[in-house]
Specification:
about 120 residues, Alpha-Beta Plaits, 3 helices
Length: about 120
């Protein structure tokens, strides 16, 4: 197994690999961007979609806040996860968004999602 750095992303990657995912093959990864309201969410979605992400807007009615789920199929390496988060932060921050973690169901046969 690959030796991942000792950080939150490395810990999540280890869990994904240990769950049986083939880390050399692409898998769908969801990156989450927290925003304050629907207008902000729509602006962030418009900014990140051209970078190759499928974007879904989500509202937490209890907390009355919004998030953008930005999905992309990719081979999961530590560098790739860090780069994607940096790219999304660069695109979202001027619009009031903040990257708030990521998750994947991996590419193994089970349906358990790992989050960072």
């Amino acid at each position: 197994m690959t030796d991942y750095p000792d950080d939150d992303d490395g810990d999540a990657l280890r869990r994904i690999a240990e769950s049986g995912s083939d880390m050399s093959q692409p898998m769908l990864v969801d990156f989450f961007i927290a925003v304050d309201d629907e207008q902000m969410a729509r602006k962030v979605a418009d900014a990140v979609a051209p970078a190759g992400y499928a974007v879904e807007l989500n509202r937490d009615e209890e907390e009355d806040d919004w998030s953008c789920c930005c999905s992309r199929e990719m081979v999961l390496t530590h560098d790739a996860v860090v780069a994607a988060q940096a790219e999304l932060q660069r695109l979202a921050e001027p619009l009031g968004g903040e990257v708030d973690g990521w998750g994947t169901f991996g590419n193994a046969d089970d349906d358990e999602e790992d989050d960072a």
